[in-house]
Amino acid sequence: MNEPLLRFDTVSKTFGSETGGVRAARSVNFALHSGRALAIVGESGSGKTTCARMAMLEYLPTSGRVLFKGEPTAGRRGRDLATYRQAVQMIFQDPFASLNPAHTIAYHLKRTLRLHRPDIRSADLDAAVFEQLAGVKLDPAIVAPKYPHELSGGQRQRVNIARALAARPQVLVADEPTSMLDVSVRLGVLNLLNEMKAARNLGLLYITHDIATARYVAEDIAVMYSGQIVEWGDCGAVIDNPQHPYTKLLLSAVPDPACRFSDAASRIDPGAVEAVRRIAAKDQSEVVTAGENHFVLAV
Ligand SMILES: Nc1ncnc2c1ncn2[C@@H]1O[C@H](COP(=O)(O)OP(=O)(O)OP(=O)(O)O)[C@@H](O)[C@H]1O
According to its UniProt record, which protein family does this protein belong to (predicted)? Predict the structure, then answer.
């Protein structure tokens, strides 16, 4: 495979003091390639958003390096930083909070186009807005003049995706992009992200607590627990043949429509719960190969 778009090289992030602080990310390694999606999966507090924020250069790692196309991102300023901000775009969890209620959808998209697309003349901006909205399967004539509160959650998230894509990014960082949406529209938004990834050869960093959707969206997966990536590799291989007790636990917690709630608890292996508790605080470092493109930290 060629040079990854985005690479985390032994990245750690501690909030507070080195000794008594929260170790939100511990020696995290991953590579995101163009035209592929990498799902970072884990429970609340496992460190996923901290990794997303480091990818967006909002947080600096305490140690380790974040690389873009092989180049370290630390210390980027001025034009270099602006280029990175254009190339790596974020889609937030809350589609409403990320749009300004005082402005129309057309305003939001024009703003991004003015900022990142100097090649588009002012006279052509309206047409470009229409093109961006049509690209995410919204009716431009209806949606462009509306205010955010006049749209549904799913439509708002599509607008956010259109806005991110308007910058012509190479990487999309989507942090729980569907968790605040009605279940009925989630699939449509995930489908759209998948289509955009393929059509534009994007690298998609898909952050989720829902391992079931990871398989739907991503080619690669990294399972995160207590700040560490504990199992990673090909998404299908990891989900079909989980090796780490935490991955097993996460999979056994996925709701099964064929299973009654009262029976669901029996699917959770008490041994796995105990093993996961034991490993929470300790650093694991020995990597075991579980198959082609499938790796796990030894417990
Ligand atoms: N700015 C911060 N200051 C102090 N601690 C933080 C900060 N941001 C995150 N943390 C802590 O770091 C750990 C990882 O948090 P993070 O938000 O990355 O997890 P997450 O997996 O994204 O969870 P969620 O899905 O709930 O957002 C948590 O213990 C959290 O309390």
Answer: Belongs to the ABC transporter superfamily.
Place of tokens 């207590």: 226
Distance 228 CA to ligand 1 centre (A): 13
The pTM for the full model equals 0.92
Ligand 1 centre to CA of 145 (Å) is 37
Instruction: Give the residue extent of every domain in the chain.
Output: 6-100+171-297
Q: Place domain 6-100+171-297 in its CATH homologous superfamily.
A: P-loop containing nucleotide triphosphate hydrolases (3.40.50.300)
Quote the ipTM score: 0.94
Closest residue by Cα to atom 24, ligand 1, is 44
